[in-house]
Design goal:
This protein has 190 residues and is of the alpha+beta class. It has one domain: L-fuculose-1-phosphate Aldolase, CATH 3.40.225. 35% of the residues lie in helices and 19% in strands.
Length: 190
């Protein structure tokens, strides 16, 4: 029950903050050589016990077809990093900036874990759900969060709450960056 509560808390917060919409985004945690991931098409804002799917990190089982379409990415991240939790969200300001930037440099000083540039992956390739695992997982060896161009973020942590914090802090920085860019465009030149 404690696991469900963690998924519900993070999922609800992501939905309420507008970082995922009705049936987008997904969450997972690692349990040894298994993982628990949100069900394909689940609503993160109101998760129930049957929305959590346990399957193998390295092999399929009868529950695999029920898992999120992003399962290949979650598997690759667990195979290549020490992460124990993953949050995949679609934060709108971050996604907007990903269409024009190859790297996002957060300007929020509140979360020191987001220092340096956050890479934007997926330039010059078609981005599909469950794709780009071969780029996302290695990038998460060096960063706690990465952005997939025009799609969303993948954040890692030891707990869902930690990955959630990286997601919200990056989105907060991207809001400020977008506001600054809009002021620069609209400011008359002297």
């Amino acid at each position: 029950m404690a696991m469900l509560s963690q998924f519900q808390s993070v999922g609800s917060d992501l939905f309420n903050q507008g970082l995922v919409c009705s049936q987008s985004g997904n969450l997972s945690i690692r349990l040894g050589d298994r993982l628990v991931i949100t069900r394909r098409g689940s609503k993160l804002g109101c998760l129930e016990e049957n929305d959590l799917i346990e399957t193998g990190i390295n092999k399929n089982d009868r529950f695999t077809p029920l898992a999120s379409t992003e399962l290949p990415v979650h598997r690759a991240i667990y195979q290549e990093t020490s992460a124990l939790a993953i949050v995949h969200a679609h934060p709108p300001y971050t996604v907007a900036l990903s269409l024009i930037e190859t790297e996002i440099v957060p300007n929020c000083g509140e979360d020191s874990s987001l220092t340096g540039g956050i890479p934007v992956l997926g330039w010059n390739v078609e981005v599909k759900p469950g794709g780009l695992a071969e780029f996302i997982a290695p990038a998460l060896q060096k960063h706690r969060i990465v952005v997939v161009r025009g799609h969303g973020t993948f954040a890692v942590g030891q707990l869902l709450e930690e990955a959630h914090r990286h997601t919200t802090m990056l989105e907060e920085s991207c809001k400020v960056i977008c506001l600054l860019k809009s002021l620069q465009v609209n400011t008359p030149k002297e």
